[in-house]
Each structure stands twice: as C-alpha cells, then as structure tokens.
Design a protein that fits this description.
With 339 residues, the protein is an alpha/beta fold. It has helices at 2-26, 34-47, 85-94, 99-104, 110-124, 144-150, 166-172, 191-197, 230-241, 275-286, 303-306, and strands spanning 74-76, 133-137, 154-159, 198-202, 215-221, 228-229, 244-257, 267-268, 291-292, 295-296, 323-325, 328-338. 35% of the residues lie in helices and 18% in strands.
Length: 339
C-alpha cells in the first residue's frame, strides 16, 4: 500500500515538474507561448468564458473612462502612496492608520497598502455602489467585506474550509475566517447592514465551485502566490474571471520581484512574480478577450523604497514596504483585470 502511494506521489511530482518546466521555457518569450497557451485554452473551455459575445454588446458597460483620472493602475507598492489622500481616506475608514500617524511617519505595512489600493481601484471604477455584487477569495480577517458593505455592495466572502489542513497555518496568524462573525468590524459598518449585505462560505480558491450567479467585481489580497507555483496563480486568475459579468473587474494583489526579471521563486508555499510574468499574463488575458489595466512597474525612489525589511520581520526598524524573501527583494503589486 505504501509503495503504491509513493508511486502516485512520484507520478504527481513528475507531472508538476513537467508543467513548471513548460512555464519556465515559455514565459518571457511572447513568440513561444504554446505550453501556457494550451493550459489557458483548457481553462477557457472548462470554465466556459471567452471574448464578449455579440449578444452582450448592448448590455456591456465598460468601467474604463478616458475622461477620469485613475489613481490606481496595475502598479507596484511605493512609499509615496502612503502619503496620498486615497490611502489616508481608506486607512482611516478601516482603522489602519490615523491622520496623525500618517503625518508623523508611522511604520507602514504593505498589507495596509493592498487593502487601500483594492478599495480605491474598485471605488474609482464605480464598483462600490448599491446593486453591485462582489466576491472575495481567501479573505482571512481583512476588513474589506465590511467596507464594501458600508457602501452598499453585496458581498460573498470565502476562505478555506476549517477541515482543510492548510487553514490551520493561516489561523495561527489570525489570517483565516471560519465564520461571518470574523469579518465584522463595528467601527466600519452597523451590524444589521453587515449581516444584510455580506455572506460567507468555505471555498478552495483553486477550485471555485457552488457559486451562485456572476459578479460585478472580484478581489483577493496576496493569496494567488500561495497556490504552489506560478502557473497555478495564472490558473486562479482565469477561473476568477470566468465568474465576472461583462464589464466587471478583478482586483488582485500579489508578490512582485523587484530585484530580478530572470530568476525567482517559481514553486513552494510563496512564489514571486516577475515583470516578465506579469507582461505575459496580460498577453494571455488579451487572447481571451480580457486585459490588465496599464502596467506601472516603478518600484519607487524614496529611501524607504531602497531599504528593505529582513527576517525577523518588523524588528529591523525599517518600513515593511519592501522585504527580503529567500534572497529576493519583493513587495506587493496590484493587478486590475477588465472583463
């Protein structure tokens, strides 16, 4: 019995390595995307989405406005963002940093940037309005479901089932939601409003199932890099897009490698995406009738963008905006995807 299990594990590992080699050989070369193309093609067929159909054109409402300036593009976290009105607004509403802390130079954390950037990206594109419906993946105990409910959106928040062994590690650091109550923040929204507009269910983001209807917006905060390898993160993005209404948007944050565009962490508990990965993601999205908001890879020139936190984190006295992870300097990047 044990030998059979070992053989199965060996076969599974071999298939995984094969897929990873295919990704490594093709990513970064737009003229040679056959392996990734085939993978994305299978996803497209399985999750039944494609370019906007002729019948959808009349009802299509694009969130892109040429006359409106967006503060949030698909961009890299920078120190300057923590001093902006949009960061101050959402930070105060979620109870992350007060106005005095921002003025006096608080110790900033890129997770706060992720939540504020997601909120601003959705608000700028008219998604935090009544009659809008949102879906959040791997929400942990983040305040975003409560915040979106405050503005009138109805929200389905999801996280790993408590019976999934992976949930224990997240629960140990207070980053796992096991009930709707975990997502309620009384300083953000009244309890009755929250309970009326927010629902919760267990879900593995790798296999989104039993979801009722389509959504105007979908989000996740630094979750897709924890799916095992770079390709699985790509897969999740396409699966999430299949749940959008025409004209909807996905907003995801993930790890971004700012010190190498060649080598990176390609597999493991936390992978890091490079510029070439993000650029090829946009190429693949466009081949399916989707696209990324314009890309801004500038990692910042402030002193706090050049200094980075090291392990043990939060004890070096440096801002936790950039950090060293297994030999690479990384930070957060927000990706905005239009359906």
């Amino acid at each position: 019995m044990n030998s059979l299990i070992s053989v199965k594990k060996l076969i599974k590992k071999g298939l995984y390595i094969g897929r990873l080699i295919s990704l490594r050989l093709t990513v970064g070369n737009p003229r040679n995307l056959s392996a990734v193309d085939q993978y994305i093609s299978r996803l497209t067929k399985k999750y039944s989405f494609d370019r906007v159909k002729d019948s959808d054109v009349l009802s299509f409402s694009s969130p892109i406005s040429v006359s409106e300036e967006h503060h949030i593009d698909s961009m890299v976290c920078r120190h300057e963002h923590f001093q902006t009105p949009w960061f101050q607004r959402w930070s105060e509403e979620m109870g992350l940093y007060g106005c005095d802390e921002l003025t006096l130079g608080a110790k900033f954390h890129r997770k706060a940037w992720e939540w504020c950037a997601i909120a601003q990206a959705l608000a700028e594109r008219g998604m935090l309005d009544p009659n809008k419906r949102g879906l959040g993946f791997a929400v942990g105990t983040e305040p975003l479901p409560a915040l979106f409910a405050k503005y009138g959106a109805s929200v389905l928040a999801t996280d790993l089932d408590v019976r999934d062994r992976r949930s224990k590690a997240w629960a140990a650091t207070n980053q796992h939601a096991n009930s709707l109550e975990k997502l309620y923040f009384q300083h953000i929204v009244p309890k009755a409003t929250f309970e009326d507009r927010v629902d919760f269910q267990f879900m593995d983001m790798r296999f989104p199932r039993d979801i009722d209807g389509k959504f105007d917006f979908i989000w996740s905060s630094c979750a897709l890099e924890h799916l095992g390898n770079l390709m699985e993160g790509f897969g999740f993005i396409f699966k999430a897009c299949s749940l959008l209404k025409p004209g909807g948007i996905c907003v995801h944050t993930t790890e971004y490698n700012i010190t190498s565009n060649s080598s990176t962490i390609e597999c493991g508990p936390s992978v890091i995406y490079r510029r070439q990965d993000i650029e090829n993601l946009d190429l693949l999205l466009r081949k399916s009738g989707l696209c990324l908001e314009k890309l801004d890879f500038w990692a910042g020139g402030d002193l706090h963008d050049r200094l980075y936190d090291t392990e043990p984190y939060y004890q070096s006295g440096k801002q936790h905006i950039k950090l060293s992870l297994d030999g690479y300097v990384t930070t957060s990047m927000v990706l905005i995807i239009y359906a």
